[in-house]
Design a protein that fits this description.
alpha/beta; seven-stranded mixed beta sheet; 7 strands; about 40% helix
Length: about 210
């Protein structure tokens, strides 16, 4: 990361706010804004947080709900422990993660959170293709582990497949919306798809 990026980061209001609040990263405010608008965490008992490192979304859930919500986090990278949070070190694109989740989850989950992003190469088409691959894997996990009536938050890079993915979610959720939180950088292509009230239909998520 260059010096210019570091300078911009230190001037970013959400970076500064995260430092003041002792949050692990500014990403916490994206979830905070999603929750404010869509109330996707209300009434949840069990949450699955995919690609959870460094743990800022977990921290935000804990900040709002304390220990009222149980959380299982998954990531390839370790995270500093968070009290009463189960962490699975694993690759969500590897089929072995299904076995690990079946062993760790006591029941189907109320909410799946995904702030997943591929390793950025700087080549737009490559990065987009990698995120689509991640997206398909996340949706497959949603088909397996999200309860009927549950909710999904899924990060996308806006592009040619955005409408197709949104339309696909409309077949499986009662309500679907695209949302760009204020905490997302303006130049970033990231968007969040919000799927509320999973229908638990028979057809699998296939892009």
């Amino acid at each position: 990361m260059g010096k210019d990026w570091i300078k911009k980061q230190k001037k970013d209001k959400y970076y500064i706010q995260a430092q003041k609040e002792g949050m692990r990263s500014r990403a916490a405010y994206k979830l905070r804004q999603i929750q404010t608008k869509f109330k996707i965490l209300n009434g949840a008992n069990l949450i699955l947080d995919l690609c959870c490192a460094p743990g800022s979304w977990i921290e935000e859930v804990k900040r709002q709900f304390g220990d009222d919500i149980s959380i299982v986090g998954v990531d390839l990278a370790n995270i500093a422990p968070i009290k009463q949070v189960d962490f699975i070190k694993g690759d969500i694109t590897d089929s072995t993660i299904i076995t690990k989740l079946k062993e760790s989850l006591p029941t189907e989950v109320d909410v799946i959170l995904s702030d997943c992003s591929p390793k950025i190469t700087g080549h737009r088409e490559t990065d987009y293709a990698r995120l689509l691959f991640l997206t398909e894997k996340i949706l497959q996990l949603a088909f397996l582990f999200l309860r009927k009536g549950g909710h999904l938050v899924l990060k996308l890079f806006d592009g040619p497949s955005t409408k197709k993915i949104r339309d696909h979610l409309k077949l499986n959720f009662e309500y679907v919306a695209l949302f760009k939180p204020e905490a997302s950088r303006k130049k970033s292509p990231e968007l969040y798809l919000i799927g509320k009230t999973y229908k638990k239909r028979r057809e699998k998520f296939i892009l």
